[in-house]
Amino acid sequence: MPNVSNLVKTIQDIMRKDAGTYGDAQRLEQLGWMFFLKIFDDREQEMELLRDHYKSPLPQHLRWSSWAKDEEGITGDALLDFVNNTLLPKLKALTGGADKIAGLIRMAFEDANNYMKNGTLMRQVINKINGIDFNASDDRHMFGDIYEKLLKDLQSAGNAGEFYTPRAVTQFIVEQVNPRLGESVLDPACGTGGFLVCAIEHLRKQAKDENDERSIQECFAGIEKKHLPHVLCMTNLMLHGIDVPSNVRHDNTLSRPLRDWGPKERVDCIVTNPPFGGMEEDGIEANYPADFRTRETADLFLVLIMKLLKPGGRAGLVLPDGTLFGEGVKTRIKEALLTECNLHTIVRLPNGVFNPYTGIRTNLLFFTKGTPTKEVWYYEHPYPPGAKSYNKTKPIRIEEFDPIKAWWGSEVDAFKARVENDRAWRVSIDQIKAGNFNLDLKNPHSTEEGPGDVDHLLPEYEKLLQEIAETRGQLKTQLMEALTR
User: Fold this and answer.
1) Which residues of the chain are in CATH 1.20.1260.30 domains?
2) Alpha-helix residue ranges (DSSP H) falling in 400-444
3) Which terminus of the chain has fewer Cβ atoms in its 10 Å neighbourhood, N or C?
4) To 10 degrees, what angle do helices 24-50 and 137-157 make?
5) pLDDT per residue as tens digits for the range 35-64
6) Contacts of 445 (CB under 8 A, 6+ apart)
7) What is the pTM of this model?
8) Class level of CATH domain 159-434
9) Chain centroid offset of residue 335 CA
10) Greatest Cα-to-Cα distance within the chain, rounded to the nearest angstrom
């Protein structure tokens, strides 16, 4: 097998020759549904061996193995005609009665498009995908890497506010929220499924028998607004052993009025990185109470999360600095959070965790619903030694969170074991109220000095301006002398 980057690059190079796939977004969407069908076909072949009476939800002629597997098979205009006029229309209209997987496939293909206009090039792409066997553990592991590569390409092709969460951050949040067998887990803005996969892996470590594994198949739910991340999410879940990821919906979570979410839909754990830096479409804010109306996506998700947690439910999420220091509606949302929930921990991440896709500073908030906040613990996450930022090649690593995990303590003892140190401090609810619910609080132990006072800075600035003027004068003189020689 070629290495991952080469395989993805080869496929994308083939697609670049096609007049229809004129950008990364089109190429990724095309690859998304193709990979979905290939992975689903490999899973079905495994099911047919393991289960005596397995019946595919797909008509035989629509299965990948029927139309795509033969490398010398249908190609050119005949392939384009089949994909455009038979495969995609029939998948979009797939019916299966009570069959969950048929509904799932229909949902996956409702917005799918074939952008390719050259059937010979499409055959070449299909043959490359055929080189991967998703039932072989090495190839499945390899697809994990392909998947990461696709995500990084997707990030580069995405707009502001569309980026996936670094794996280290996802893993840390899930470990600290600590979902347990029998509990329900939700990501209301699940993207490509990073948090859900991490939660599933966390629960699998606790599983002892087949009943536990069956409960893991059903204990989680996700909602994703955009078509491509939704398809990639379902593919990701299938690769992680979820047979029918039908509890991941393609929908805009915020388009449903807050009051319509009933008690039966409440969950034990929410882990998420809601989109931030973006604005919801007109009218969405009307789904929320007047006090909380805003078009800022992250703030609306925070209101929703408070609603969706059961009493005693736990949440861990990523939020930008703007929510912490913002006023107006943001102040009222924070007051509600601190009244209805125990916001016990805020981890302040350094700049650049989401580089190069956004420079917005972020925080990890952890809270439990049902008891009001008495104090908030802060922990300032430092850069690793020698680093001044993060980037594509040197992202944040899970090992960097080890000191925070050692300091964390347990919720059972109300975190009484926690102590203040150079990185950790606590703030009482009275102090937060006195500051009008500003949560953007700096480390009081920080040795870093600020920019200094004006009386000291102004003379320094004037001196610098004088030096610049003198240097400019010298350069001008030298230039005039050179020109008159």
Assistant:
1) 4-134
2) 402-408, 429-434
3) C
4) 160
5) 889 988 988 888 888 888 888 889 999 999
6) 420, 421, 422, 423, 425
7) 0.82
8) alpha beta
9) 27
10) 97
